[in-house]
Amino acid sequence: MKNLKKITLTLLFLVFTTILNAQNYDVPEGFRWTDKDEYLYISQDKEDAIQKCMQAFSMHGTIDIENDKIYMNSNIPIFWTTIDKSSRNMGMVFYCIKYKDDYDVIIKRVKNKDTYLFSVKESNGEYLDLFYLKQ
Fold first, then answer.
1. 83-102 in b/e burial notation, b at 16+ Cβ within 10 A?
2. How high is the mean pLDDT of the chain?
3. pTM for the whole thing?
4. Distances (CA, A) of 45 to 49, 58, 99, 116
5. Cys staple from 108: which of 6, 38, 49, 129, with CB 3.0 to 4.6 Å?
6. Is 70 within the bounds of a domain?
C-alpha cells in the first residue's frame, strides 16, 4: 500500500510539473490556456482586444507605438513578435485577429526559427501569410 501511495504521489507530481512547464509564461487576467498550446482571450470589441494584446505584449516586450503598427482596418489589427525573455531558443507571437463576430487575442511560444503560422483572407480578398521570423 505504501508503494502504491508513493507511485500515485510521484505520478501526480509529474503531471502537475508537466502542466506548469507547458504554461510557463505570464499573461494578463482573462486569458485561458487552449489545447493548441497557446493562450486565448476573446472579446466582442476590437478596441478591448487591441488593449489586451498590448497589455500582454508589454509583459514580454517593449511597446513602441511609433514602430509597432496597429492596422485598424485589417482582420489582423496586431501581429507582433519578440524573443522570450526566459529562453533565447523561443520566440513569442502576439496577435489579435477577427474570428467570426469576435476578436481573438493569441499569445503563443514558438521555436526561435523561421516559422510559418497561418494565412488569413482580408476583406478586400487579399491573403496575408503570417510568419515568425527568427530574431
1. bbeeeeeebbbbbbbbeeee
2. 83
3. 0.77
4. 6, 20, 12, 28
5. 38
6. yes
